[in-house]
């Protein structure tokens, strides 16, 4: 049996969602490059996350930033993989020296999905209901709208969360619609929350492909599959986050969209918010303008929010670690 060596090795985390995203990247690469459509040309390499001890050390060390991306980046540097496939939501705004993200795939719907048998929106929940989420962004926005609700930490894969919901451990929870769609489970959601009710996270619903900056071959293969409008939106959102310099414990939502109807490719609208984790304060900024200006508009919105919330607010959140 002759051994066929892959032309491109895609690194992925092992979760069902990560693997679905890696398959989507592989399919897109195959559509664009005929040589990558051949059996065995693109290999998906599962990069195992290191032990819990290691993870704990990292979490303390880096405050959670890069927790989901670090192992894949190590594999890139080691040459075990040529491309790292990421949820852009999990990618810090600063990349390690020597790495770049030349491609963002066409973005899925960035909205959050709602799960509850007690009401089909945040507003519809009964007084004092319990919402499960580990996301500061979701927690803060839910409490801002409904200070009477109780938010509890909530983790686990989709099946686990749905079971906990069914068991009555919580009355409602939220997940990114994009992830559900990619796993063919969007029909399990009760409703989709509007972006006015819950502003999504930076990069939510977008898949990014990261390579070593000095690997011209991988870079060029990957760059050819980028979806320019999605990249523009995600890069603008990341520019805003960069100015805000938030940790994963800072409740931040940012969404860039095209036009008023989301379709006019020449115009971009960006909404951003920063909130206190308990929802007691929310600062919002909005910008609209030419698409070429997206990143500077985004930085400007970020600067406005930084100023409005005040340095003391960001320092207090940083102290949580
Ligand atoms: N933080 C975990 C994470 N990172 C990306 C997604 C979903 C997929 C996406 O946003 O592209 C999720 C799960 C979730 O928030 O429901």
TrEMBL record:
<protein>
    <recommendedName>
        <fullName>Porphobilinogen deaminase</fullName>
        <ecNumber>2.5.1.61</ecNumber>
    </recommendedName>
</protein>
<comment type="function">
    <text>Tetrapolymerization of the monopyrrole PBG into the hydroxymethylbilane pre-uroporphyrinogen in several discrete steps.</text>
</comment>
<feature type="modified residue" description="S-(dipyrrolylmethanemethyl)cysteine">
    <location>
        <position position="248"/>
    </location>
</feature>
<dbReference type="InterPro" id="IPR022418">
    <property type="entry name" value="Porphobilinogen_deaminase_C"/>
</dbReference>
<feature type="domain" description="Porphobilinogen deaminase N-terminal">
    <location>
        <begin position="8"/>
        <end position="218"/>
    </location>
</feature>
<dbReference type="GO" id="GO:0004418">
    <property type="term" value="F:hydroxymethylbilane synthase activity"/>
</dbReference>
<dbReference type="InterPro" id="IPR036803">
    <property type="entry name" value="Porphobilinogen_deaminase_C_sf"/>
</dbReference>
<dbReference type="InterPro" id="IPR000860">
    <property type="entry name" value="HemC"/>
</dbReference>
<comment type="similarity">
    <text>Belongs to the HMBS family.</text>
</comment>
<keyword id="KW-0627">Porphyrin biosynthesis</keyword>
<feature type="domain" description="Porphobilinogen deaminase C-terminal">
    <location>
        <begin position="232"/>
        <end position="306"/>
    </location>
</feature>
<comment type="subunit">
    <text>Monomer.</text>
</comment>
<comment type="pathway">
    <text>Porphyrin-containing compound metabolism; protoporphyrin-IX biosynthesis; coproporphyrinogen-III from 5-aminolevulinate: step 2/4.</text>
</comment>
<dbReference type="InterPro" id="IPR022417">
    <property type="entry name" value="Porphobilin_deaminase_N"/>
</dbReference>
<dbReference type="Pfam" id="PF03900">
    <property type="entry name" value="Porphobil_deamC"/>
</dbReference>
<dbReference type="GO" id="GO:0005737">
    <property type="term" value="C:cytoplasm"/>
</dbReference>
<dbReference type="GO" id="GO:0006782">
    <property type="term" value="P:protoporphyrinogen IX biosynthetic process"/>
</dbReference>
<keyword id="KW-0808">Transferase</keyword>
<dbReference type="Pfam" id="PF01379">
    <property type="entry name" value="Porphobil_deam"/>
</dbReference>
């Amino acid at each position: 049996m002759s051994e066929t060596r892959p032309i491109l090795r895609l690194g992925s985390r092992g979760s069902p969602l990560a693997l679905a995203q890696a398959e989507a990247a592989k399919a897109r690469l195959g559509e664009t490059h005929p040589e990558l459509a051949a059996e065995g040309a693109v290999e998906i390499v599962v990069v195992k996350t290191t032990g819990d001890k290691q993870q704990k050390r990292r979490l303390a060390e880096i405050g959670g930033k890069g927790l989901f991306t670090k192992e894949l980046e190590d594999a890139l540097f080691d040459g075990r993989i040529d491309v790292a496939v990421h949820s852009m939501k999990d990618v810090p705004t600063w990349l390690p020296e020597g790495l770049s993200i030349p491609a963002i795939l066409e973005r899925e719907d960035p909205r959050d999905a709602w799960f509850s048998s007690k009401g089909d929106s945040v507003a519809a929940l009964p007084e004092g209901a319990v919402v499960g989420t580990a996301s500061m962004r979701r927690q803060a926005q839910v409490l801002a709208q409904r200070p009477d609700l109780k938010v509890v930490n909530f983790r686990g894969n989709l099946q686990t969360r749905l079971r906990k919901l069914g068991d009555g451990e919580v009355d409602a929870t939220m997940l990114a619609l994009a992830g559900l769609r990619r796993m063919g489970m969007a029909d399990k959601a009760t409703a989709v929350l509007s972006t006015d009710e819950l502003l999504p996270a930076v990069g939510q619903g977008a898949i990014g492909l990261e390579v070593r900056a000095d690997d011209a071959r991988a870079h060029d293969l990957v760059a050819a599959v980028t979806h320019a409008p999605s990249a523009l939106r995600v890069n603008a959102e990341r520019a805003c986050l960069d100015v805000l310099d938030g940790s994963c414990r800072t409740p931040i939502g940012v969404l860039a969209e095209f036009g008023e109807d989301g379709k006019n490719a020449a115009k971009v609208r960006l909404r951003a918010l920063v909130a206190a984790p308990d929802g007691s304060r929310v600062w919002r900024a909005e910008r609209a303008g030419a698409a070429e200006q997206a990143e500077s508009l985004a930085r400007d919105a970020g600067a406005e929010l930084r100023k409005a919330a005040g340095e003391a607010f960001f320092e207090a959140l940083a102290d949580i670690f």
